[in-house]
Amino acid sequence: MADKLIDLRVFADEAGRMNLSLVDVKGAALIVSQFTLFADMSRGRRPSLLGAGDPARAAELYEVFVARFRDRGIETRTGSFGADMRVSIENDGPVTLVLSSDDWPTRV
Q1: Given a cut of 80, is residue 79 above it in pLDDT?
Q2: Could you tell me the CATH number of the domain that includes residue 24?
Q3: 34 catalytic, yes or no?
């Protein structure tokens, strides 16, 4: 997943097309762990965390993910795993991508 993200062509080339990767634009990465990605919202109004993985294993996977970015020469900063954090971002463009290593049927 780290390599997929690093090589994903989502940055505009000189023609304005999404054709360049993080490597191509010599970009940097901010990787912040977010347990809420494992929350099940299929029922009710409260996120269920029953399907969430083991926090110790999650921390290991997070570190492996971060290490892969650094191994590939990407300047990488991180949040603090498991901490409450406030992160501000500036999005550029009307595109939202969902990446998953699992089969994920399209939902409309």
Answers
A1: yes
A2: 3.50.80.10
A3: yes
